[in-house]
């Protein structure tokens, strides 16, 4: 969980250095959105995506079962 938090924080900083939250709010149809709300939504969006990525990486890192020639299942 911590790696995704740190990655989301860094991603939020880089993203909002490149893109102005007021311009993004106007573009997305939320002209009354404050910059703080945009930063918050961006951070939680990045955190959600990096959490899902970390979770899937951990899930697919698990060992699989393989069938032997005699039909029994063994862990690799």
Question: How is the secondary structure organized here?
Answer:
Layout (H helix, E strand, L loop, with lengths): L1 H17 L2 H8 L6 H26 L4 E3 L5 E3 L1
Antiparallel strand pairs: 1-2
Helix pairs in contact: 1-3
Quick summary:
The protein has helices at 2-18, 21-28, 35-60, and strands at 65-67, 73-75. It is mainly alpha-helical and 76 residues long.
What does this structure look like?
With 76 residues, the protein is mainly alpha-helical. The protein has one domain (2-58). The protein is 67% helix and 8% strand. The chain has helices at residues 2-18, 21-28, 35-60; strands at 65-67, 73-75. Strands 1-2 form a two-stranded antiparallel sheet. The radius of gyration is 20 Å and the shape is elongated. The two termini are 27 Å apart. The model has no long low-confidence stretch (mean pLDDT 86).
Radius of gyration: 20 Å
Quaternary structure annotation: single chain
Query: How many helices?
Result: 3
* Integer tally of domains: 1
The proportion of residues forming helix, as a percent range, comes to 55-70%
- C-alpha termini separation: 27 Å
Order of H and E elements: HHHEE
Average predicted confidence as pLDDT:
86
What is the overall shape? elongated
Question: Which structural class is indicated by helix and strand composition?
Answer: mainly alpha
Spatial ordering of strands, largest sheet? 1-2
The overall strand count is: 2
State which percent range the strand residues make up.
5-15%
Low-confidence stretches: none
Largest sheet: 2 strands, antiparallel
